[in-house]
Design a protein that fits this description.
Layout: H1 8-16, H2 45-60, H3 72-84, H4 88-105, H5 107-117, H6 131-153, H7 174-188, H8 200-209, H9 213-224, H10 226-242, H11 256-264, H12 267-273, H13 284-294, H14 297-300, H15 307-316, E1 321-329, E2 335-342, H16 346-368, H17 380-388, H18 391-401, H19 411-428
Antiparallel strand pairs: 1-2
Length: 429
């Protein structure tokens, strides 16, 4: 069973591990893997590159006071961003990203096509749902989740404080893997183990039931503390500048733009003002919030056509939700559903508040660390490396421009080209 975690190449490799050609392989996959919607086509590499470039410029422009036009930090960072637009390494990475996005968008169809191209006889099985198998699978899944959560909770603390530098091999023991998972969680949430929420159920909630919960509450904390958010982003830009290799533009990610958008639509004010108030899809406040959010489509995706679902998506960004209250029918026979903003039941609120306290402690410790001085860097070395990149790399990139992403004709060539160019870049610098 494949749920979209593995790439198509990894799935093919996994299937081939069964060497007996006479054995039938029964495969189940998701038809597609959900992705965060953007205003650009995720399967178009040049659209992704343009969107990433816009994000970098908007983030850097937030620091015009700290890094004015003639500041050497700003000049070098702008040079790296501009150079990436003609860098075969960056364009190759964006092509790989587009290919992966296409796979996720057409997961089952992509796997079927690859298997047929490799000579596997593929036949689709269209059976009716089996309640017995469904119940059996649900029970098995619940048992695995409970056992894993319990084993992580009781795992060793030997990797705590070192999770960012520890790397385990595939042959590592299960106890070491569980210990590393525990360490990553404790390093992400300092002193959470001292709270009343720390138990196997907490691990189950943040790892399986709501894996985005920590990120949502982190966004809530930074939204309440905008100075902290800006300082963290500033330090990231300084680190990118200080790195003699520059930074990989295709890996760029920022939370600051999403926070600015959430602040612009006054999401916290909306939550505070309508806390405990029953809301309907047709209320003016709901319509106004959705209209504001529509202006920031590129930050968190396209709003739903259903107003209440759109509000839920916006509230979920900061750990809140909408709870169904009641349904009333008017004289014309129309149903009016009532909802209210909620932070969860008492147990969930306790858990969330403990996470928020841990996040606050984490950022206090992060900001107490000594800020590294700004180094004097220039783009001369980067320019030399760019000029020495092989012409064959550029030719292959040109060939890829004329080849639709969905055909995957140059997948392995692109992967090798990407690795080759990264090695060249590191050596030259």
């Amino acid at each position: 069973m494949y749920f979209g975690v593995l790439s198509i190449d990894a799935v093919i490799q996994h299937i081939k591990r069964l060497r007996d050609r006479e054995v039938d392989r029964m495969i189940w996959t998701k038809s597609f893997v959900p992705q965060k919607e953007l205003k650009v086509d995720r399967t178009s590499w040049d659209a992704i590159a343009l969107h990433k470039n816009e994000e970098m410029m908007r983030s850097l422009n937030e620091f015009k006071e700290e890094f004015p036009e003639n500041h050497h930090v700003r000049q070098r960072l702008l040079g790296i961003i501009e150079a990436s637009q003609v860098d075969p390494v960056a364009s190759t990475a964006f092509r790989l990203t587009a290919m992966k996005n296409y796979e996720k968008k057409n997961y089952r169809r992509s796997l079927e096509s690859r298997l047929r191209n490799l000579g596997f006889p593929v036949s689709m099985i269209n059976g009716s749902p089996n309640k017995f198998i469904g119940d059996w699978y649900s029970n098995c899944r619940k048992g695995v989740i409970d056992d894993t959560s319990e084993s992580i909770f009781s795992a060793s603390d030997k990797f705590v404080g070192k999770s960012s530098i520890v790397t385990l091999s595939l042959d590592s023991s299960l106890s070491d893997k569980r210990a590393l998972e525990k360490a990553k969680l404790l390093d992400r949430l300092p002193d959470i183990q001292l709270s009343e929420s720390w138990n196997p159920e907490f691990i189950k909630q943040v790892k399986y039931q709501n894996p985005n919960l920590i990120a949502q509450l982190n966004r809530l904390h930074l939204l309440r503390n905008p100075d902290v958010a800006k300082e963290i982003e500033k330090r990231k830009w300084i680190a990118r500048h200080n790195n003699r290799y520059g930074f990989d533009v295709w890996r760029f990610d920022t939370e600051l733009l999403r926070l600015k958008a959430l602040s612009a639509i006054d999401i916290l004010d909306f939550i505070e003002r309508y806390d405990g108030v029953e809301l309907e899809a047709t209320d003016d406040c709901v319509t106004e919030l959705i209209a504001k959010a529509a202006q920031y489509h590129g930050v968190w995706g396209k709003p739903s056509k259903y107003p209440i679902k759109s509000i839920k998506l916006l509230l979920n960004n900061v750990g809140f939700d909408l709870e169904y209250v009641s349904k009333q029918r008017d004289d014309e026979g129309k149903d009016h559903r009532k909802y209210k903003i909620t932070f969860g039941d008492d147990r969930t609120q306790t858990c969330k508040n403990d996470i928020l306290r841990s996040l606050e402690l984490k950022y206090v410790r992060d900001l107490e660390r000594e800020v590294k001085p700004i180094l004097i860097r220039n783009n001369s070395q980067s320019s030399e490396v760019q000029s020495e990149l092989s012409e064959s790399s550029k030719v292959i990139c040109q060939q890829l421009d004329s080849s639709p992403v969905k055909k995957f004709k140059h997948r392995h060539i692109v992967s090798l080209l990407y690795i080759h160019n990264r090695i060249m870049w590191r050596r030259k610098n």
